[in-house]
Structures are given as structure tokens and as C-alpha cells.
Amino acid sequence: MELASGGSVTLNPVILPSVQEAAVTWTSSDPSAAAVSSTGMVTNLFPGLGEKTVTAEVTVKNTGDVAGKDAIQLYVSLPYITGGLEKAAVQLLDYAKTDELAPGESKTYIFVLGYIENPQEDKWEAPGIINKKPAQEMLARYAADEDVDAAFATLKNYWKGLLGKYHVESGDEKVNRMVNTWNQYQCMVTFNMSRSASYYESGIGRGMGFRDSCQDLLGFVHLIPDRARERIIDIASTQFEDGSAYHQYQPLTKKGNSDIGSGFNDDPLWLIAGTSAYVRETGDISILEQMVPFDNDMSKATPLMNHLKRSFDFIVNHKGPHGLPLIGRADWNDCLNLNCFSEHPGESFQTFGPSEGPVAESVFIAGMFVKYGEEYAQLCELMGDSQEAAYAREQAAAMYDTILKSGWDGDWFLRAYDAYSHKVGSRECEEGQIYIEPQGFCVLAGVGVKEGLAEKALDSVKEYLDTEYGIVILQPAYTEYHLELGEVPSYPPGYKENAGIFCHNNPWVSIAETVIGRGSRAFEIYRKTCPAYVEEISEIHRTEPYVYSQMVAGRDAKFHGEAKNSWLTGTAAWTFANISQYILGVYPTHSGLQINPCVPKGFGDFKLTREYRGAVYHIQVLNPQDVEKGVISMTVDGTAVEGNIIPCPKDQKEVNVVVTMG
């Protein structure tokens, strides 16, 4: 890359703690050598334990007619911090001067930015003198050009191998780009950091969320299953004996955050979701037998399977007047605080007031219970407990009926009942008549499909909630504060939970559309929040055109379409689950990979590579009739098989599959 005078090249983001981006820049120090140019290559090495390095190799070549010198400077831009810097501050980290270069002569310089943590016992080499030996050893590893080239190749091969575990080749370049690289990469980032860092928080802050971390597993488990297993155990260790859990925990101490405590009544079911995803991916049921403590007290340890039972029974034992699950402090929507009644400054929306409340109920949690009740039943069957499996399905079926009886509003599903047993998300309400969450989750759980209500609910989403930039969380937006609803109506109309486009739950509606076979509508929803498709309107969207954001301003907002809070969001995992498992249709089951695509009209044939349980599956999907959903035949290594689930091979490393839709 040749740079003009004053030019720069942006390096790999997320380089060191608190560093957003870096750039190699050069300035000509000799006016007579104005044609001097420089080229740069950056290696963002995958950090090892206690060590982070960034290597920049800059080649400077004199392309002019006279000899001259050059100065190379390495800068980083520090991120914006609320209450601190008003704008990004550029900081010079390193520089080098060349010798005089004759015309056509070039010389290479290697920059190494490093971070080393010495063990406590090796911190000093003498009183008052830091032990520099580990740092010097690190520098020595990048002493020559070939060392840097090898490190860059190692990094490239690492990511190629990791992200290649799910790879699609379709006629849509944007789908290929997002699925093969950026969506999976963001899933890795959210798994590592949960929501513990953001544009407005610093320090240890909130730590990692119980619900957040469980959901992040859905998009990560296929990448590094062993780390997913460790995370599940960490999460389950913060659970209480009654099945509830700390809403947040600190990743270093593995202890729950007592400041906020528990009472978010959807949390227990997410543990079932994350564990089910892991077992379906790996076939490893030994995790269900692993001893896991309650509240990190090993004297109270029980098998993980018992933790899941307590998660399930927590919902069974916490129901309100209509037989729907009690919402507690909140459910997935942390701002729908139906038991808080925060009236004055300093009264936290999430911790003020009674945490449980014997009345306020959540239709959203009811939909979760139906879906994850079935997944819990399947885990019970794997463990040989048919009696518990039957019990779980009986409870889930009863909740299904309760949703239809007390959670249906005529054209869509209710959102909740408040502390006075008044409906939330109903035509009876002046504002907030319809919410997105139950429409997506109840239908993806299968509720109302055979009765024709699912299609009706999704049609209502399109009519009342859809916009050109995505589906808003509710309508009409709240224009005044409602004490009984908590934080939701405290936001300006069109932002955040008050009628903003919450990208996290748009995939739920897209998945729901695949459940009833509407591939074109499912893909339409996918496109609207997908960064690759909004790149052309970056002046409106205003976040990176390669990662998902938490929310986008809704149609009631002044800047409709403007995104907020990119990178650390559950949108990454849910969107990857949506596109990879439901639209492209490669879904891991306990019996093997199920192939059941639901694609838009005109999507065409496509190929997939999927690593699964030690084998590489090469899957070709043919769609000669251009249908949206339906599989009429499947061959595995040339042999026709019944159904659409690929049996797990024994001692076979490559599997070739041809699926014909129709």
C-alpha cells in the first residue's frame, strides 16, 4: 500500500485495552525527498496468557529522484469516555527515523507494542528495577521480517480455521460476508466480554450477565465448545437453590453481584437454553453429571442436571393469578419493571420495590417456558429419566393452553399483566398496545401455529411494528411516564425500550416466520438490521457496517435509523442462530444435523461447510422449484436417507450431503 503525503492506514481494531484503532502514518522530513513513500503491515497477535502484542512492519522506499530521509510515526486513537475526553484523543506510541535512502533504496522497520504481566514472584530483577526479561523475550520473537511474516500467517490461519467451522457459499455476497466472517467474529467478542464493556461504562462495572452469557452461547458454542462448557459451569455456579440466580456475576471471581441480586424471572430458563445448545452441538452429556455449586458454595454442589430441574421448577412454582409466570423485577426487557414503582430520583428501576410481586405476569416468559420446557424434556430423555420428561412436557402443554386462554388479545399476544392485573400490550391500552417480544418468542416456540394465531400475530407485527430500518419494540410509543410500567416509558419516544428498534429481538420474529414457512418475510427482517445491507446508508446508520448494534432509533425518534451501542449485544448470537440454523437451515439436534432451510424466493442453490462432532459436513442445497421451505429428498455420501436429519457418522471425517428442496 503506497501512501501519499499525510496519508495513513488503519490497523486492526481492538488492539489493547481501551484502544479502539491505530494508524501508521509518515511524514517526510526532507522537502527535497517529497516522493518518499511507506508501506505497512500490521499483526494483531492473538493474546496469550498475560501478554498482548501488536506488531507493525513498515517498509519505507524512496520513490523520488534524490536521496532523502523519512520519519515513521505510530498513533492510536483512544475511545470516547463519558465524563472524560470530549472526543477521541490521538496518542503517539512510537516512531522511527530512517537513514538517508538513495533513489530506489528501501529499508524495513518493525514496531512492537507489547503488554506483559509478570507473576508476583518475578516482578523485580533487583530492588526498584522491573524484571524486563519476559518483555525482551517477547521482542526477540519479532526481531526479523520473517518472524513478523510468520506471526501474521499464524494469526490468519487461526481465524481461518475458527471461522471456517461454518461457511456458506451462496449467490448473495453480503450473506456470505456476514455469515463467514463478521457475525461469527462478533459472537466471539460478545462471548469474551458479555456486556461488561461499553461506550459509557468503565472498570469492573456490571460484570457479566446471567441471561446475556447464556444467550451468547447460542452463537459461540460451535466455535470453541470446551470454552462454552466452562462458561455454562461458571453461570450455573451463581444459581440459588430455589432455581433463581444472580442477574450478574464477575468473571474474575465468579461471584454474583449482590448489589442487583436476583429476581429477573426469565434468567433460570436461559440456563436450560445454553446447556441444551451445548449438548446438541457436542453430544457431551457428561456435563449434565458434573457437580456444580449453588451460589459458589461447593458444600451445596449437585449435578448440573439438578440445576436445570430447579430452573424449570422455578417457573412452575412462580405463577400469577392467570397461571402465567410471575415477571419479578423484569424479564428479558430489563426496563419493563412492573413491581418497582420508582417515583423519585435515586429509586432504581430494577431494585426498588418488591422484587417478586404476587400479581405481575409475563407472557414472554410463558413462551420461553414452552420452548425450553421441551428442550429440558429432551435432556431428561438423554439421561434416561422418562418420568421427568413426561412431567416437563405436561407442564409446557399446560402453559401453551394458558397462553391461548389468557395471553391472546385478539390479533396478537399480550405482553404482560401489571401489578394490578391490568393488561400490558393490549388494544385496551392507550399507548404500548403491541410489543414485539411475545409475538416472536411465542411463535418460535410453536404457540398458536396449528390454531392459525401465529400467522395473525406476525401479520400484526408487520402492520404495526415494522419500519424500513427494522421492527420497533412496541407501538404506540409512550409519551408520558407510567409509574406501574417502570423504566420503559422513561425514555424518549423512539429510543431504547420505548419504541426503539431493538435489534436483539428482530431475529426472534425472523425465526418465527421460518416456523410458519415464510422465507421471504424472514429474510426481509434479517436484511433490515444486517450491517452489510445498511452499509450504503452509513450516513444514517452511523455505526460500523460490519457489526450489529443493540438498537436503532425507531420511527418516533428524531433520527430514525441511527444505530447505538455496537459490538456487545445479544443481537450477534441470535442473528447467527437465525441465519445459520433457521434461514440456511442447518440445525444441530441430539440425533445429528437437521437440514431444513427457509429461504426467500430467488435465493437459489447454495453450499455449506459445517464442522460438527469431529466431522466436516459438505452440504449442497438444491432448490429447483424455488420454494421457500420444504425438503423432498436428501442423500448422504450418495445414499438416500429418510427425513432431513443426517445420522452422526462413526469414525468418519468427511460427510457429503445433497439436499433437494421442494
Structure characterization notes:
By secondary structure, the protein is of the alpha+beta class. It folds into three domains: 8-118 and 147-152, Immunoglobulin-like (Sandwich), CATH 2.60.40; 173-583, Glycosyltransferase (Alpha/alpha barrel), CATH 1.50.10; 586-661, Maltose phosphorylase, domain 3 (Sandwich), CATH 2.60.420.10. The protein is 31% helix and 23% strand. The strands form eleven sheets. A six-stranded mixed sheet has the order 10-27-28-32-29-30. The protein has a four-stranded antiparallel sheet with strand order 1-2-5-6, with no helix packed on it. The protein has a three-stranded antiparallel sheet with strand order 3-4-7. A hairpin with a 5-residue loop joins strand 16 and strand 17 (423-424). Helix 10 (436-444) runs antiparallel to helix 11 (453-464). The two termini are 49 Å apart. Residues 1-51, 77-88 and 199-203 have low confidence and may be disordered.
CATH class label of the largest domain = Mainly Alpha
Number of strands: 32
The oligomeric state of the chains shown is single chain
What does the overall shape look like?
Answer: globular
Helix content: 25-40%
Helix count from the secondary structure assignment: 16
The fraction of residues in strands falls at 15-25%
Q: How do the strands of the widest beta sheet line up side by side? A: 10-27-28-32-29-30
Low-confidence stretches: 1-51, 77-88, 199-203
Q: The CATH topology of the largest domain is what?
A: Glycosyltransferase
Second-tier CATH architecture of the largest domain: Alpha/alpha barrel
Terminal-residue CA separation: 49 Å
The biggest beta sheet reads: 6 strands, mixed
Structural class: alpha+beta
The domain tally reads 3
Radius of gyration: 27 Å
